[in-house]
Amino acid sequence: MLLVVAPLAATAAVPEAHACEDDASPALRGSQCALMDVPLRHADPSGEHISLFLRRIPASADTTRRGEVWLLSGGPGESGASLYPLIQTYQRAFPGFDLVIPDHRGTGRSSRICPVQESPESPEGTGLAGTEWGPCIGAMYANLQRTSAFSITEAAQDLGILMSDADRSGRVLLYGVSYGTQLALRALQVNDLRVDGLILDGLVPPETTETFDLSRRTALVDQVGRDSMDERSLERYRTLLAVKDAGWQKEVPGGDVRRFFAALLSFPALRDRIPRIVQDLSAGDDRSLVATVKDWNVALAQLGQGGNNQPALPLVMLIAASENNARPELGMATVNEEAKDALFVSPIPGLLVNGSVPRYPRDAWFGTSPRTLPRTLVIQGTLDPNTAYAGAKEHAATLGRSGPVTFHTVDRGAHLLALVAPRCFVAAVDSFIEGAVISERCAEPAPE
Q1: pLDDT reported for residue 310
Q2: What CATH architecture is 18-113+150-208+367-443?
Q3: Residue 437, φ and ψ in degrees, nearest 5
Q4: Which pLDDT does position 364 carry in this prediction?
Q5: Fewer beta carbons below 10 Å: N end or C end of the chain?
């Protein structure tokens, strides 16, 4: 069941949550849920309020409780539910810690940008049906004051309120993945979170980057894709791409093999099949392609990418256009030119062209770092197609001026290392929590 609480000031504590109504999953059993009202704009606590969803999964009863860890999902459109399939991995990494998982404003069961079109009762549930896009975008423009409140800084201030009730009888840790790392760092800028440790899984590049921003995502996935293959396979792939109207193309989701192979880069076991798929297709055999498409859909389903746990695309587009696009003037001609010779292509640059959603202005926090950091662990894969390894190294060096930062490399690791490199992830986090020496590098066993 969900507990709806009254509007609270920033210094107020979050009331005790009640048992959740959806804890049938063994990983969620015994969890507690709450809905909390917060100001739409924290500078105006007397104005409109929105609700935030929060789930707490208590530490196992057979372990000594050591504290709690707050888990921030990515996106920015992913809800906390995107982390639920990884609960057992997080429990191994944080033994004795309660797991506290909020839904960022605009995602999951928290208030949405387009509450009518993103309602679970709408035709596509929390996703947007084709006919819902127009009314949603129209509503965003019609109420710019409300729309612009779904910013990173407002979400960071939400976290300050939620974490004001953190149980200080043990250690309080903060974990973020992908966009969650950006949100965590912004939250440490605008609040006194008093956390004992920070874990950044897939660290975003510096916000002022002009090398690794979203408009240049094709350059990143193309480099990662090339680095994951040997030269012989790459040459065979180039030859395959030159073939027009091949029969196997109808088996490729979306019809664009360059985009499909780029999507596989997020799943190392599937990524490492690409050379074999290329070899088979070159010989006129599409069976490995068909099998991989099926396994890719299974992988997406296991991450909960369906039903009412679809990414909140209005929020994705709003934050991407406002804070993570270094080229707002980008045109489709440039996007096509930059993708012309790429072997792996991202759809993201094209989505940023002539953005259909409004943008909010960047505030004074943009491009800056927290004054001080707690002990911090950055864990990054060398083949991460979403947050560039080089960008993470650059950002970590900057963060090192604010506090002690340890950088842990996962060789051939992709994105969301808790998922794709659980052995390395658990080992690094365990060493971090215990205050032991953390190895500089780790590698997951090669797929069979």
Answers
A1: 79
A2: 3-Layer(aba) Sandwich (3.40)
A3: -70, 130
A4: 96
A5: C
